Every structure is written in C-alpha cells, then in structure tokens.
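User: We ran a pulldown and think these components assemble together. Before we commit to crystallization trials, I'd like a predicted model of the whole complex to look at. Sequences follow.
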Amino acid sequence: MVYHLMNSEKQVLDLQPYNYITYKPDYYTFVTAYKYEYHCYFYDFSAAFSEYPELAPKVFGFNLDLVFKPEGLTRVPPDPGIAVTVTNILKTFLSKNENAVIYICDYSDNREKARFYTFTNWFRRFNDGSVVHLKGMIRAGETTILNAMLINRENPLLNDFIEAYEILTGIYTKPDNDYLDNILNDGDW
Amino acid sequence: MQTSLEKAPFQQRTIEYFTKKSQEAKGKEKLLVALEMSKYITAAREHGLSFDELREAGFRFATV
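Assistant: Here's a predicted model for the assembly, 253 residues in total across the polymer chains.
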C-alpha cells in the first residue's frame, strides 16, 4: 500500500503543464490534449481594496475561461493537465512580484461549490508550499459566496494582505484606535 | 446596495461604472462588485470584445 501511495504521488509530481502562450500584458492561453482552449488572466482588483492604498494596486482577480470546445464534446473530460497548468501560471505570477490574487466563485448557476472545491483541490495537489491559500466565505442575503486569496509565502506584504482580506470578508474586525489604546493601556492583563 | 448577477442582456461598461459602484459599496459588498466585474469581463469576451477594447474601456490586466 505504501508503495502504491508513493507511486501515485510520483505520478502527480511527474505531470507536466501544457505549453502556454503569454499575450502580454493581457492573458495566458493553452490548449489541452482534448483540444479545449482556455484563457486565463489577472484583472485589476484594486477597487475592492481601496481602503488599503499600499495594497490596492497589487491585488488582482483571476479568471479562467473556456473559450473553445471541440464539436460533439459537451463535458470537459477529467484532465489533471489543466490543474497543473493553471497552478503553474498562478505560482509564476505570484513569485515574480508582490502581487496577491483573489478568486471569487460565480454562483449564478449554483455551481459555485464545484468550482471552489475543484480550485481548492488543485492547490492541495500542486502547491509546492510557495503559495499561501486563504479560503473565505461571505454571506449576501441567502447567498454564500466562496472565494480565496493566494499570496506568495515570501511576499513582504503577506501579513498586511492577510489582515485586509480577513477584514474584507468579515472574518476579523479591526478595533478603532481609541478602543485599541484602551485595551493596550488596561493594566488588568 | 444591490448587486445583480442575474442573466441580463449584455451591456458594455467602462471601468468607471465598477469603480463608482465599488466606492458606494461597504466591506464585503466590494467583493460582490468585484465578482460582477469578473463576470462582465467574461461576458464581454464572449460577446467578441478584445483585450485591447477592454483596456480602452479602462480595465487593467497583468502578466509576468
């Protein structure tokens, strides 16, 4: 059993990403073995972080769009090559600058959980530890919106991004300065 | 503030539309606006808008 597990792990690690083309400064594209064509791109997300002027220009949303599918095929066949390629593009994007990436799952077709868990699973399998993956959930009325933030572990703004993300998604509420001063000056520790 | 994600006829937008909406939004509502923008970009591409045209409308993209 141990041998099989190790062997299966090795197969995962041996998977190669599809060759992708970068159309600077807009998007990346790749075609799978089944001839599906994808575009993935990072778009300006600064408006959502307008209260954090140092972080705002470094935050990008991430989209993965299927732009071509072969005739006769209605459903994308299981293809770990897509996961390896997308995580590879994300890791490269995050490793070369101080950027952070946000991924929000579209819920308009009720498939947000499938998208979220697929994406989470990709990162569980193919993250080499270089990327911090924070998962969030926000409620808007009856709707739950699943999202995630990705940041390079070596990003000097890592802690600032995490705090801003936690406040934005409602996980954490930062006390105002007066309240914080009162707490810090409280002698009854 | 309401952010509609229902299927509606495609209408061309500029970045100012989303910036204004985001300025009016508070806290996590800003993420809803960001989601609307994400869906808009996908829809715009499906309706034949190029990245050049999206950039002319003020949308910004990044690669490395």
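Chain B touches chain A through 32 residues (CB under 8 Å). That may be worth checking against your pulldown data before setting up trials.

User: Thanks, that helps.
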